[in-house]
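$ ./design --mode recover --in tokens.txt
reading tokens...
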């Protein structure tokens, strides 16, 4: 520490002796003093003996004492702690070098941070103290939240990433580097894409671009290569846009969750379903053929009561056949192997036929067909018939207390709309978006009584999609349900 110069000479203000000039000088000083008092910064002047010679209003506030108390007193008298600050050393340096200097210091008595600018004057120094407490605290908070984020991002088992609004990757957590054995340089920006499985490449880019353009959440299953083992593992990738106060996207926060084991289990289940449905078909076909043979024999022998029993066997076998067919369809859809015929389909005739077939096997409900349409479409008539039969049998099944199902045919320009309306139990709102998913069933006390496996609507929606159509539901619990199929006419 440099010695304090207690003997710095102090220069007193010199007046000219000319009354006009002195009056001007006085007025000028008064204006400057007024101006200084309006400042938010504390300004004070000390002479070379460390005595206060001037303080503005803000400085008085800061020191908690008035000018009359302070002017002429040595700064250490009331503020001994200032000797410990960089203040003393900096002030000495400013005087010696005749150059201004700045330093930041925390002033304990006020618990505040100041940025102090010290300027050399003829007789000492002028100090301008600017309160930077809020800025310091904000920076501290930011640092703390960055540290919290880092800890969180590193402690969760997922790979975590952040991109700019335009999708440029800026951050990955350590799990990413551990898995991909890459560096930030290799995977930043669009470098990550090259670690994708080639079969997932295009789909991923499309889904990601869609989210970037629309701001919709990103949700995808894809495979990334573990560079060390060469293995591709399945991940669930998810990201949400982070927006500013005005709603503009500023970042994307994303995670990749390893779902490889789940995927393997799913694949095993799919394989099981495929094998089981194939294995079921052969014995069912045999039972069906033998039952028919037996029925004819018994008819010839004139044994009607036995014929009735065989008819019951046939009904059960038909149910089994439908179940095995549905299982097979589901596994084919999963594997992308459900084949469709390309033929002219008279859609009105097809709907009418489905209604008639349903009516023949059903005695509890009257199925009424309203409206009509013209035109035909190109597609698979059997598959589309399967859609209508499914909607009609659901309408009957889920409205045990009703006695009617309405079917509406309507043409809208180049589209035909088929609505199947029942007056049954309805579907709670929260389930409506999921009923088209594979094996999805609405489980509640009331619906437990309805048999089914949740395959019909999944198959129906796949068939409709393959015909470039759409299937939607609108339903109210206890009132009924309307399924609407729209198909483009060719
Ligand atoms: P399943 O009827 O074999 O369960 P679906 O795939 O045909 O399978 O239907 C899925 C679920 O949607 C059903 O379990 C049922 O909860 C609901 N659902 C379908 N159709 C109707 C309807 N017409 N009324 C009420 N609920 C329905």
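writing sequence...
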């Amino acid at each position: 520490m440099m010695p304090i110069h207690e003997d710095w000479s102090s220069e007193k203000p010199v007046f000219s002796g000319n009354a006009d000039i002195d009056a001007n000088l006085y007025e000028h000083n008064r204006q400057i003093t007024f101006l200084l008092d309006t400042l938010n910064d504390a300004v004070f002047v000390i002479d070379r003996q460390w005595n206060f010679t001037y303080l503005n209003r803000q400085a008085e506030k800061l020191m908690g004492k008035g000018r009359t108390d302070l002017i002429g007193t040595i700064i250490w008298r009331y503020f001994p702690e200032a000797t410990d600050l960089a203040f003393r050393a900096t002030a000495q340096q400013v005087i010696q070098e005749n150059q201004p200097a700045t330093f930041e210091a925390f002033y304990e008595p006020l618990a505040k941070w100041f940025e102090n600018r010290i300027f050399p004057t003829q007789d000492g120094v002028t100090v301008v103290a600017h309160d930077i407490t809020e800025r310091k605290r904000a920076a501290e908070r930011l640092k703390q939240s960055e540290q919290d984020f880092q800890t969180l991002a590193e402690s969760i088992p997922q790979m975590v990433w952040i991109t700019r609004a335009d999708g440029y990757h800026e951050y990955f957590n350590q799990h990413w580097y551990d898995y991909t054995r890459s560096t930030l340089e290799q995977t930043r920006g669009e470098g990550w894409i090259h670690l994708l499985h080639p079969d997932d490449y295009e789909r991923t880019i499309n889904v990601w671009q869609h989210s970037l353009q629309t701001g919709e959440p990103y949700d995808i299953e894809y495979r990334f290569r573990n560079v060390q083992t060469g293995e591709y593992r399945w991940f669930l990738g998810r990201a949400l846009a982070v927006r500013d106060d005005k709603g503009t996207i500023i970042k994307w926060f994303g995670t990749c969750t390893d779902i490889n084991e789940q995927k393997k289990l799913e694949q095993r289940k799919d394989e099981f379903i495929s094998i089981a449905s194939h294995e079921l078909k052969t014995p069912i076909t045999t039972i069906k053929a033998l039952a028919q043979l037996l029925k004819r024999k018994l008819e010839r022998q004139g044994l009607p009561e036995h014929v009735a029993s065989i008819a019951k066997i046939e009904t059960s076998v038909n149910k089994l056949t439908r179940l095995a067919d549905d299982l097979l369809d589901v596994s084919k859809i999963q594997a992308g192997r459900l084949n469709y015929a390309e033929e002219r389909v008279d859609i009105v005739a097809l709907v009418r036929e489905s209604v008639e077939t349903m009516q023949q096997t059903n005695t509890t409900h009257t199925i009424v067909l309203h409206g009509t349409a013209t035109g035909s479409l190109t597609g698979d008539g059997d598959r589309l018939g399967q859609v209508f039969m499914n909607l009609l049998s659901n309408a009957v099944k889920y409205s045990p207390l009703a006695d009617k199902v309405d079917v509406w045919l309507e043409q809208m320009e180049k589209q035909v709309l088929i609505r199947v309306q029942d007056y049954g139990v309805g579907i709670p709102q929260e389930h409506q978006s999921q009923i088209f998913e594979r094996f999805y069933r609405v489980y509640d006390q009331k619906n437990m009584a309805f048999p089914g496996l949740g395959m019909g609507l999944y198959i129906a929606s796949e068939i409709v999609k393959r015909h470039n159509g759409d299937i939607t539901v609108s339903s109210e619990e206890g009132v009924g349900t309307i399924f609407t199929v729209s198909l483009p006419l060719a």
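exit 0
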